[in-house]
Amino acid sequence: xxxxxxxxxxxxxxxxKIVKAHKNGILADSGMIAHGRGEAFDYLIGExxxxxxxxxxxxxxxxxxxxxxxVLSVNGxxxxxxAEEIVELxxxxxxxxxxxLFYRTPKRVENVEKVLKKAGAxxxxxxxxxxxxxxxxxxxxxxxxxxxxxFKADVILVPLEDGDRAExxxxxxxxxxxxxLNPLSRTSxxxxxxxxxxxxxxxxxxxxxxxxxxxxxINSLKNILKSFNNEKNLKESLKIIEIKEL
Length: 246
Ligand code: PTJ
Prior knowledge:
246 residues; Rossmann fold; two-stranded antiparallel sheet; 10 helices; 8 strands; 52% helix; 11% strand; binds ligand PTJ
């Protein structure tokens, strides 16, 4: 039991979720290392959603609203930390949810599926390993996608992604939105829209932006996308990390 008055309470709660998800076969072993790296970057950005992250979140919401076939991709870490929030966001957007694992095993797919169903998801794509397609003909597990989900998607939210896969998805003509606390990662640099924020803060904020932009006309949404520059946004996030004093 983590005492609520502990100065690192929120961070310890997230660690606890990660440890439990690992014990329950939801998280990849590397998922723990990935979380530790994310935690370090979160510490450096002050564990709050920065102004550049807010801009990226608004842009992501606009892209998702403009999409014909938006898909929210879920891996082990996302399922461990934000399953309910992802399911809620999928409802507001009428977006599909797809399980897409870097370290894919049938057992992990089954475990992540259980978490998503418990969080309220009714239809989940990417679970039938025998019927997955390979994006752009690249026969690597990184490029797998379900025919009706990621394969057909025009806009994909892929939080905590692997750089290679983000690049493959972008090269196949899709708009790739990622959430990654590390602005220097290959994923951050290769994605179309990178939200440098913790997934636990970012997903609820995307939902809020979706709600506030929902009534806007198509041109206003397109203008939000046009005025966004991912490289510039990443550089602004990097400036926040600059350590000025103890
Ligand atoms: O569940 P699987 O099999 O698909 O595997 C998932 C992981 C995350 C293990 C896999 O995709 C991986 O190895 O990812 P990387 O290359 O370690 O990248 C993960 C990125 O997510 C890193 O840049 C971390 O800084 C970042 N990150 C970690 N925790 C969070 C985060 N970003 C946002 N919110 C977090 N809570």
